[in-house]
Amino acid sequence: MVLMKKGYAIHPDMKKTILLHNPKAGDNEFSRKELVKLIKKEGFECQYASVKEEGWDEFDEETDFLIIAGGDGTVRRAAKALMKRKRLDKQFPLALLPHGTANNIATALKIDGHPKDISPQWHHAQLQPFDIGRVHGLGDDLFFLEAFGYGIFPRLMKDMDKIEGDIGDTAEEKLKAARAVLLEIVQSYEARPCTIVADGVEHAGNYIMVEIMNIRSIGPNLVLAGEADPGDGYLDVVMVSEASRGKFESFLLSRINDEEKEFSFSTIRAKKVKISWDGKDVHADDERLKLEKPVDVEIEVLPDMLQFMISRN
Q: For the residues of 72-117, what is the DSSP string, one character each?
C-alpha cells in the first residue's frame, strides 16, 4: 500500500473493504442490499456491518479500507473506534458515502453525489489527511472532527432534541427547521464573558458563540470558517460577540431564504487554544456535553490522524 500522505494515490490492488452503514441516517434512502450490490459491482469485496449492532468495530486486519455510509455522526463513531486502536495497529483509509442530514465532513472533503457516482472514484482516489482536535479538561479522550464550541450551537442541539418528531422527514426540512430554531436562539441568547488564548495571544469579550473549527461548516450546513482546511495542521477559532449579534441574525436569515450573501466573522487560526467560558452550553461535534459548572479547557490540533479517500480531480 502507498504512503498515506496528501496527493498519494490509492494502490490499485486495494479491493477488500468493510461497509459501515447507519441505516437510520438522513432520509433512509439506501438499503443494505442496494449498497452492498453497488460496491461489489465495482469489483470490491464487501463485508457489511451496521453501526447500530454490536461488534461493528471489530475490523478484519486484511481489510484495505473502510466505507462509511451515513452522516457526520456516523463518521465520528467510526473515527472514535479508530482512535482507540494502538498506534502500531493497521490504520484504515476511509471512503465516504454521505447520506446524513448535514454531511458537513463530506462537504469539507468535496465528496458529493449518488453512491453509484462516488464508488467508481475509489479505484483512482488519493488520500487526504484529516486532523482532529483534542480537548483537555473535560474527561479522557475527548476529540472532535468538525468543531468544539460554546453558546448558541449546543443550545440548538438541546432545543432540537425537544422537537425532533415535529421537524419534518427529509434532510432539507430538518435543516430549514434547525436554522429557524437557531435564529430564535440568537435573538435571545445571553452573551457570556469568555477569554481565549490562541497560540499565546489573548482575546476576551462577551460572546454568544465561540467555535473552534476544523472544517468550514457545522450544524445545519452553516459555513462559518470559509478558509478552514481539515488537513493543514491548524484550527479556526470563530467568535461572534454581542456587537455582532445582528450580523449573525442577518446571516441566518439569508440562509433560511436561500440567499447567497457573503458573510465573514472574526476568526483566529491557531494550533493550541485555551478557553475560559462563563457558561455550561458546550459541544464536541454533534455531542452536547453536560457540565455542572464552567470549566477551563485546552484544545490542540493533532495532524494527520485520519486519512480519507477523495477524488483526484
A: HHHHHHHHHHHHTS-TTS----EEEEE-SSS-HHHHHTT--S-HHH
